[in-house]
Amino acid sequence: MSPDKTVFDNFPQYIADHYKLITQIGILMNIISYSNVTEVPVAVNASKLTGSARYINYRNYLYPRTRRNIPFEIKGSIYNNYLQALKYCDILDIKHSEKEIARTAPNIKNYALHLSRYHELRNFYNGTSTNKAKTYKINKSKVRKRLIALCRLNSSKRFLGFYSISFPLNAPDRTLYEIWNKFLTNCRRRYGLKTYVWVAERQKNGTLHFHMLTNNRMNIHKVNKAMAASIDTSVRQGKLTWGQSSVSLYNGVDVDSLQHPKRRQFETREQYRSRLNEKRKHSLSERVQFAIKYMTKYMTKTDNVFVHLPFHCSRDVSQLFTSMVLTDQDMERYTRYMSDDENDYTIYSDERKTVYAFKKKPNDMLFNMLDRVNNYLYEQYWQKDSPS
After folding, report:
1. Closest by alpha carbon to 7, among 382, 302, 380?
2. Radius of gyration for the alpha carbons in the chain, expressed in angstroms and rounded
3. How far apart are CA 366 and CA 343, in angstroms?
4. How confident is the model over 212-221, as pLDDT tens digits?
5. Residues 323 and 31 sit within 8 Å (Cβ to Cβ)
6. Tens digit of pLDDT for each residue in 145-200?
7. What is the pLDDT of residues 65-76, one digit of tens each?
8. SS3 at position 311
């Protein structure tokens, strides 16, 4: 079946030519992402974009991902990850077993998870499901890349709001997720929320807390009142209690614009001036980095398992690309934008790959092509004739 009309038809030729597919055997694959550079010495199809949940990059074009119902097999990312896991088992000459991967190759334990997820889905498809409750863990790398992709959009440079949402103490997870989903729906329908990334955080007291990043302006007073009303509804239904708080006292939705310091709230004049001067010392890019680190910092300190999704983003964000896969030849044009000082990276290495995680903010030119493509996709998405 021929793919649908590509979204690169209106791209300048020099951009389209940049993404030609180069297939070589036995070369070094280089992956440039928003958070690191990775070298993997395996045979690959290089010089392409990856990370989008909506498009596949092939040769000079982007093709929409399609879903097909095939009765004899499970198609999609779970099946593709399963095949990739089998491939690595063959490379390492080990059994296709989750336990074997965990025992002999703990550095790629995510492939054991790929096998597990596929087997769970396969058992359900065959009617042999164990009815085991599905659990989730936060993929910190994925979350960070999505956050950076959102922050680097042109629309985000005009406004970027960082929301923190808290709830009454000891509120149950299930009820909070019900409230959270209603709140997001309300914000989309009534307050202009379109583009966002959110993550869930479990505080030390055990109560969930949510953080959200968006480039849409919303009236904080109306948003806070809407959340208070949603919580109060659950209180009246007996699903949770206010504790020492109440609907009239609730002020659990907090927002700060990363472009402009927050206005004075319950501070002395001296405290306000001190905080204002401190924020003015930092550039917008530094404040964006702060927001990203704040939203992901707790992931490094905990290995919490969630029974609901701990992270989600709007479709216009999930479609964005977050990395480029390059051959050594194509990589040469990017090395001039990278530091030669090893102290500027946190380096992880084994016999299969070497990861150079950025300690400092990398040169923006390193992501010039990714930014161009993502801004184009974002603008196309919100055009009236854009596919849903």
Report:
1. 380
2. 23
3. 19
4. 999 999 999 9
5. yes
6. 999 999 999 999 888 888 989 998 889 999 999 999 999 999 999 999 999 999 99
7. 765 444 445 556
8. strand
pLDDT number for residue 351: 72
Phi-psi label, residue 70: left if phi above 0, alpha if psi -120 to 50, beta otherwise: beta
Among 103, 121, 101, 120, residue whose Cα is nearest residue 111: 101
Helix (H, G, I), strand (E, B) or coil at 377: helix
- Beta-bridged to residue 313, according to DSSP, are 197
Q: Identify which of 59-63, 122-126, 206-210 has the greatest average pLDDT.
A: 206-210
What 3-state DSSP class applies to 48? strand
- 32 - beta bridge partners? 37, 324
Rounded to two decimals, what is the model's pTM?
A: 0.71
Strand pairing class (22-24; 44-46): antiparallel
Q: In what order do the strands lie in the sheet with 311-313?
A: 253-257, 161-165, 208-214, 196-202, 311-313
For helices 77-92 and 109-125, what crossing angle results, to 10°? 130
Torsion of CA 338, 341, 345, 347, to 10 degrees: 110
Give all strands (DSSP E) within 101-232, no chain letters: 161-165, 196-202, 208-214
Amino acid letter for position 116: S
Domains of the chain: 1-136+317-388 (no CATH), 140-309 (3.30.70.1910)
